[in-house]
Amino acid sequence: MASSPTPSLAGKVALITGASKGIGAATALELSSLGAKVVINYSSDAGPADALVQKIGADRAIAIKANAGDVKDIERLVDETLKWGGGKIDILIPNAGYAPTDQDLERTTVEQFDRVFDINVKGPYFLVQKAAPHMPPHSHIVLLSTSLCNLSSITPNYLLYVSAKGAVEQMVRILAKDLGRRGICVNCVAPGPTATELFFKGKSEELVKTIAGWNPFGRLGTPEDIARAMAWLVGGGSGWVNGQVLRVNGGMTV
């Protein structure tokens, strides 16, 4: 009888920030199903993170609390990951984000600007800096943007959020050149509207239906849709894909 195939990510250690809910949680489940050991970072509520660890298995997942926008916390997160994961990080996904939808030019405060850029830009920037020295050749980094960066009908209230994600996309271009010399692929996933708790917050049913109608499939994306794209980018079949932004939105923007 033929033996079962080895999972494609067996032996890999993945660190995912903002991984207790939504896209991050779906990605943790997807990568673990492919054999990876997963670090589930969360910022405040331990309950969902601990539940996810139990679902995956305490031998293959760990929850670590850290502020993904604070450099000292990021350094500790990397250190704890290395101790748990055997001194290496094979997959890095800075997924944690903050997405205000009411920040046009007039209403943006310095405090809001700093918060958005701390979590969406500074955090991923320094997480990559701290983790990269411990990533062996054939490792993968996947940053997160948004398909709003490519939406011609974008409205002024998204100014601050999309400015931050635009910075992330430029980071990917340059990091791919830099870290590619060490055999590390750096790419980006830019989801479209996705059915997460964060997305539904403050939106009427009518607005949700309208947004779903922008898509040729007539629906929102699911966290699992995004997670499967992440899994492909960190798997063995994507080794010649580097410096790219993959807009995972069902064709909402093309």
TrEMBL record:
Enumerate the Gene3D superfamilies for this protein: NAD(P)-binding Rossmann-like Domain
Any Pfam family the entry gives: adh_short_C2
Mind listing the UniProt keywords for this protein, alphabetically?
NADP, Oxidoreductase
Q: Name one GO molecular function term.
A: oxidoreductase activity, acting on CH-OH group of donors
- Keyword Oxidoreductase present in the record's keywords: the answer is yes
Which InterPro entries is this protein grouped with? NAD(P)-bd_dom_sf, Sc_DH/Rdtase_CS, SDR_fam
The protein in question is named: NAD(P)-binding protein
